[in-house]
Every structure is written in C-alpha cells, then in structure tokens.
Hints:
Blueprint: H1 2-12, H2 26-48, E1 54-62, E2 67-71, E3 76-81, E4 88-89, E5 94-99, E6 105-109, E7 114-119, E8 126-127, E9 132-138, E10 147-153, H3 154-157, E11 165-170, H4 175-178, E12 181-192, H5 195-202, H6 205-211, E13 217-224, E14 249-256, H7 262-267
Antiparallel strand pairs: 1-10, 1-14, 2-9, 3-5, 3-8, 4-7, 5-6, 7-9, 10-13, 11-12, 11-14, 12-13
Amino acid sequence: MQFRQQALSKLQSPEELDLPVRFARPQGWLVLTVTVLVMIAATVWAITGTVSSTLTAPGILTHGHGSYVLQSPVAGQVTAVLAEEGKQVAADAPLVRIRTAQGTTTVVRALAAGRLTSLVATIGAVVTTGTDLASVEKTTGSRDPLTATLYVPAESAAILPAGATVDLTVASAPTQRFGVLRGHVAAVGRNAQSRQRISAFLGSAQLGEQFSRAGQPVAVLVRLDAAPTASGYAWSTSGGPPFALDSMTQATAAVHLAAQHPIDWLLS
C-alpha cells in the first residue's frame, strides 16, 4: 500500500503536470531513419536491379554428326587390327580381320568416314557374333568444327534461351591454367533422351549410362566461339591451352540464364 500511495501522490502533484512528454530518444529516431532509408534502397534495387543465375550441366565435345558402333558379323578370332585408335578412317576402310572356325576370313569395314574413337578389338581376341569391335565418330574431315552437347534435366531445359552464354570447363584443359571455353546455346532438344539413344549417338554404352543416370535428359547443342588460338576457340584467358581439343572430351557447362529483376521473383 505504501508504494501505491506514493504513486498517487506523484500524479496529484502539480509540479509533474508541466513536464513535456518524451516520445522517443534521439538514438531511436536515428535507428528509424536508417531503417526507412534501407527499405527505400532495397525497394529501388528490387525494381531496377538485376540478378543473373547459372545452370550447371554435364556435356561432351563432339563433331555433332553422331557415332556408330561396329560389331562382329561372325564368331571367330581377331587375326589383324588394320587401323589406329584416334585416327581418321575413310568410308569402307578395313578395320579388323576375323578368322572363323571354318577357316574363312571376314574383314570388318567402316560404314562411314570418321574418327576411330574407340578400338576394342585386339589381335588374338575371340569374338562372337554381335561383339563390339570399334566406335567411329562420323565426320566430313579433320577440319570439322567441334560442338558441345549438354545433357540437361528435362525440367530445366525449358528455361534455357537460345543464344545464352556458356562457359565450359574442359577435362583436358585445367581451368586454373587455361580458363574456361566459351560458347553459346544453339539449340535445345524437344524430347528427352533415353540411355539407348544417347549410347547410339555417342557410340558408347558407358556414356549413355553416365548421362542418363539421373533420369532422361534433354540434349542441348552449344556452338563454340571461334578465335585465333591454338585450339581454334575462345577462352576466358588470352590464349587458352597450346594444343587442339579432341572430340569425345568430357566437359562441365555453366549456362548463364537471362538476368531478372528481383521483384519478378517475388511476383512469379
């Protein structure tokens, strides 16, 4: 009761009635002012500023014409290997010679001109009908330009615009020394690629399994930017690697998507 009586006495005192009411301390006004200014700046940035994002996807450098796999038409033993892996072969060029149990000899030939990317057959190996012997990437010549084929998840392919800038980290050219390979999206596939279809295009069941491991992707074609460098293509560094790039070299791509205003994300 003592404290309540003191409080009543202070309220009844006329000396307390002429004191001004203090709404906020100066420090409080400063905090409020700074908060308002920050909110205004954030609103202006959300409307006028832009933010870019990237999409990462695995890919491979090829000549863009696809590959094919040569299989043994007979059962027998490989008696000669007539081509060298990595070299160009002409259409109908002899690649492998096989002797059957009946003593006849069969020569397996290239179906179309291209680069012999994989040669499985070895002298003395016993093969059955349908055994894979070699993979050939179809080309029209050694000067065919390289392209990059990316395998993008189907749900992400729809947001890739044609002409988007692409930076490629190439397995054979360390980024720390040579930078990234430059390119642009040329075309986005309309249908998802099955493991069998990827294997047929690349001439490799292993690559088909690798690129379809997370589901059926969409193929995206990337044109590499030409430049007067040793590789013939543009890099983020001045010259890039001092050697030519080989087809069937794997790469990781960062596709730069169209820049958006932050407010678009809030309204979408």
